[in-house]
Description:
By secondary structure, the protein is mainly alpha-helical. 70% of the residues lie in helices and 3% in strands.
Amino acid sequence: MTSWFGRLRLEKRNAPGTGVLLLVPLVSVVAALLFGAVFLSLIGLAPVAVYREMLRVSYTTGYGIADTLVSATPLILTGLAAAIAFRFKLYNIGGEGQLYVGAIAASGAALAFGDRLTGPAAILLVIVAGALGGAVWIAVPALAKAWLGTSEIITSLLLNYVALFLMQYLIFGARTFWRDPESATFPQGARIPDATRLPTLGTTRVNLGLVVAVLAAVVLYLLLTRTRIGYRWRVFGDAPAAARYAGIPSRQVIVVVLLLSGALAGLAGATEVAGRAGRLDPTGLALNIGYNGIIVAALARYNPLAVIPVGLLLGGVLNAGPALQTLPGARVPVAISTMLTGAILLFALAGELFVRYRIRMRDPADVEELAEQATTAVASPRAGTGPEAEA
């Protein structure tokens, strides 16, 4: 007799259906919440009460919704940065560093030229400078990948730390152009001119950066699905051999896609500087926004339009962390939001197995036949060995 577990087998899907593509991310989020509930129970907290409070502070009050939208803006942009690269099997792990350099470039451009410009020109200057900063920071990993075959995972990841220390040095390490000369007690970045600040939407804290992020997602989706360039990129990502046969220049695709990915991450840094912070703020920017963008991209299955709602979901989770400190009774760890985002990523990656494969039950007769064949193969002598072979 064979157990039911031995009858299970994985069968590769020819093409995953829409239902599977939607269900797997949803189940991943639910599984992460259940995992978090176990963790909360172990430390003596009521999971239902914690989750209810997270929902309330992030999605049911005007102030909470505004905070969620502010938190989601850079997550959408770094999610797009990861999605465009990962979709074509180019693993840009350097969104964090590209965001830092985008913030440095955007604040530098605002401080240098912001007083000479007004209106849309000043805002456009900051946005373009941030995007260029992110693109420049990923240029070396992109060129090394295209011409030397160097792993972009390692090079882009290591440059994150270089960018972080560079940003900290500009404010904390020396009296540079970016540092406020009047901040004698505690060093901080110089405030950028008001003309370069992103305008807020109505009376809320939500700024124009959210509109920029949504427009970037729509434009990227149309680029990938409605243009010849997007078609060539999809062929490169899905069938490299066919792309070579069709004459699609792989080096060009690698460089352009990675530069676009870096530009989107740099744009996230620009929206943070010109929106929320109003200055180059090393402490406020070092929030793992680039790494969380990878979670957004994975959960959205690298679909630019799906990045928007996933970014809003993750923005609410991260926004709820500090608010949980106001719960009566036992103190909720602020790291619960970080733990949940990590769990979501792990379950989303595990869910990829069920996107690519389906579970089938073997016929009991087939299982018995396979078991007999395996037993016979083990018991019989190997070909070319033993006394008969010697004779």
